[in-house]
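Regression report. Comparing outputs from two consecutive submissions.

Submission 1:
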Amino acid sequence: MKKLFTIIALFLLTVSVTIAQDSPYQKAMKKEIAKVIETDSIPELQQSANAFARIAEMNAKEWQPLYYQALAYTFQGLNRSLTLDKKDEALAKAEELIKKADAISPNNSEIVALQGFIIMGKVNADPSSRGQSMSGQVMATYGKALGIDNKNPRALALMAQMEYGMAQFFGSGSEKACKLAKQSQEIFAGQNKETLKAAMLPTWGKSMAESLLKKCE
């Protein structure tokens, strides 16, 4: 009887370990996600974008590969070393990819927030000619993301960045921007980052909120 219980216990342990192991898809995703949120190197971002493209091709029903591929191109589009044409080229690729992700997972606050970030990237690329015409679209998109999930810390941090930029441009107060950044920071602080990483959900954006809060002091 004791031997039987030992066999059962070993079997259950084997099953639990097997369940806990990542699939090849998850392993590939987690490896590239770690890269894309930790680098600002254009060659490395492009390598990750290419890797996510391959993953997306083999996992056509998943939105995350398209999301992170779009994020890699968005980060490229924000790089100050690129010419305006190159920034626009990267952001156009990001926009195309995030639309595909949205088709797979509609009304997803993370996808909508990234859509706003892409538009904000376009504004940042040429603020003098695009700021007036596109700023409203940026804020409306962040508002939509928060309408889906008002606890999305990235949407709050990104909206705070946009609010702060507009306040600086118009010479108005930055109280609203600072309040949004504070809300974002508090939500980030309460999240279990490891749980989010295990589910391949976004964790980036905390440094944006913290950086803005330093300006608010």
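Submission 2:
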Amino acid sequence: MKLAGSDLTVEFPAQGAGRQHGATTRALAGVSFAVRSGELVAVTGPNGSGKTTLLRALLGLVVPRTGTIDLDGRPIRDWTRRELAEMIGALPQREEPAFPLTVLEAVLLGRWARLGPIAPVGQDDRDAVAQALARCDMNGFEDHSTDTLSGGEWQRVRLARALVAAPRLLLLDEPTAALDIGHEMELFELLRTLVRDGLGIMVVTHQLNLAARYADRMVLLDRGRAAGEGTPSEVLRAELIEAVFDWPVAIRLWNGRVPQVVPLTRNDMGDR
């Protein structure tokens, strides 16, 4: 399975005092992107570079001014929302439950595309929830209320909800937010396991070094444009990272092959 966007341009109404009537802000400018079954693609870049807009466009949640989006060669607009929910699991960046649910209830919401609006919950659904919670290190939390969870626990419950429908592709926006280092590593280890099982994953992340260790490909966005794309070694070059993030860095190799970005102080420049 392949989800692909070609030459995507997305504009939003301009915000702020003094804006002209009808003025727009360009969030994406001619970006092309694809994620296929069996690969993990990391999308990174500074704040406001268009990462979340790209993910939302690929899900059909915002309409590009130009460009096309296809899922398995079929225009995204031709898929029903229920069909997309069966094929693509999504984890948005921000979300707060409107009212408390148990963890079991929260994760079961991810089964709606397969259950339908009024079908009863069966044993297969409960087994799928148990498996998803176990994969996200949240087994035993089924009866906990969502309003008692820590930020990291809630993030893992949300990931379990995205997995419970057995999607073919998974699109994640900052999934390691609020996670400690151990759970960050566990999450990326889980993503690699899912990729080995055939899932295609797009992950939006600020974690350059984790992306370099786990991603097959990286896409670096800068002010709505693709500044770099390729393997981590092709993208994580000091001159490119410095230009995009406007900060001095050094690139070191971990295990002799994986680039890692080391932010420098201004006084470190002579030590590179």
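Expected: both submissions complete independently.
Actual: both completed, but the second showed a warning that disappeared on reload.
Relevant detail on submission 2: The chain has a mean pLDDT of 90.
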